[in-house]
Design brief:
The chain is mainly alpha-helical. It has one domain: ABC transporter involved in vitamin B12 uptake, BtuC, CATH 1.10.3470. Helix content is 75%, strand content 3%. It contains 14 helices and 6 strands. The protein has helices at residues 2-11, 14-35, 43-67, 76-93, 98-121, 127-146, 162-169, 178-196, 198-208, 210-215, 220-246, 260-267, 279-298, 304-348; strands at residues 147-148, 153-154, 157-158, 171-172, 176-177, 248-249.
């Protein structure tokens, strides 16, 4: 009986729709690549798609968790680039050991997240305005720590160390990158945290109805501070991982991923207005985006179509989310009207 209910729930879930979309993409690119004498569905392609998920997954996890509360952070990629730069400057210029450099980097990123939370919670800025503004401020910090007086420009750092080499190149069992393992651990950790713990329940309650959560004795501001800081830390990790993989750190790092995490989160079912969705959907959303990008590369289609798709998906996801939210908000109003009409009819009799 329980298994039947679980199956029925799955058949009606957003996850099934996402998996069907993913399957359709695999079929389309398998046929398309075969027609031009290439192969899409193989082990190398699968490993490549999973490998492509790593950096953006940290952005998506942080953005997705924050989005559950109805807040949005547009400074994630800037903070991520800051994370990569600060780690390199700390180790290369300031000669700090890697554990100290890593802790300092993530602490500064967390502080940036707290600044965003202060603007939103204490000064009542709209989240997208606050984080868009602070993004410029954080870019100024990047220039400050990477400025080269001789060239009068921000530096592009090339760097290698035992720590960054291990993080960027080590493979578990000889074929699974250590960063992929870290990504899986992160998805599992946040998935369990949000779906199986009291903290996760609080996040969904705050996102679903902040006023009701406040009246229930919860503290929406506290949750907001935690998740803004968490989003910034996860962004910093994305920057650190990208730096370790490429051996490069500069202000343009992650510049092509500004909306990737947000699009994956919304595509995966997390509502723009908060209160719905989870990490499983975010992961499948990332799989869909990266499968499309990989497929387009294999069939030699123009690269700019990937950016076009990202924008189209974001517009569609926002439209569907807005329509759904509007419909859900109208339902209680209709029920109240029906109750009033029923009461009035009873009174007239």
């Amino acid at each position: 009986m329980g298994s039947e209910k679980g199956l029925s729930k799955f058949l009606k879930s957003k996850m099934l729709s996402l998996l069907i979309i993913l399957l359709i993409l695999v079929v389309i690119f398998s046929v398309w690549s075969a027609l031009i004498g290439k192969k899409f569905l193989n082990t190398d392609t699968l490993l490549s798609i999973i490998d492509m998920l790593v950096v953006t997954s940290f952005l998506a996890i942080g953005s997705g968790a924050l989005l559950l509360t109805g807040n949005i952070d547009l400074s994630t990629t800037t903070i991520g680039a800051t994370g990569g730069l600060l780690l390199v400057v700390s180790m290369k210029t300031w000669l700090l050991p890697w554990p100290v450099a890593l802790i300092l980097t993530l602490a500064v990123c967390a502080a940036f997240g707290v600044i965003n939370a202060v603007l939103v919670n204490e000064f009542n800025f709209q989240p997208f305005i606050a984080t868009m503004a602070t993004s410029s401020v954080f870019k100024g910090f990047q220039m400050f720590i990477s400025w080269d007086k001789a060239s009068q420009a921000a530096q592009n750092f090339s760097y290698s160390s035992p720590f960054t080499d291990f993080l960027g190149t080590y493979e578990v069992f000889g074929f699974i990158p250590i960063t992929v393992v870290l990504m899986i651990i992160a998805f599992l950790f946040y998935g369990i945290l949000l779906s199986k713990t009291k903290f996760g329940d609080t996040v969904y309650l705050v996102g679903g109805n902040p006023n009701a959560a406040r009246l229930s004795g919860l503290n929406p501001k506290k949750i907001s501070y935690i998740l803004f800081a968490n989003s910034a830390v996860m962004s910093g990790l994305a920057g650190v991982v990208l730096m370790a993989r490429t051996g490069q750190a500069n202000q343009l790092a992650l510049s092509n991923n500004m909306f990737t995490g947000l699009v994956a989160a919304m595509l995966g079912g997390i509502s723009f207005y908060g209160g719905n969705g989870g990490m499983g959907g975010v992961f499948v959303g990332l799989l869909i985006l990266n499968t499309f990008n990989k497929g387009m590369a294999i069939v030699n289609f123009d690269a700019y179509w990937s950016s076009v798709l990202t924008g189209v998906v974001l517009v569609i996801a926002l439209s569907l989310d807005f329509t759904k939210t509007k419909r859900l908000h109208k339902l209680p109003a209709r029920l109240k009207d029906a109750e009033k009409q029923h009461a009035a009819a009873g009174g007239s009799r």
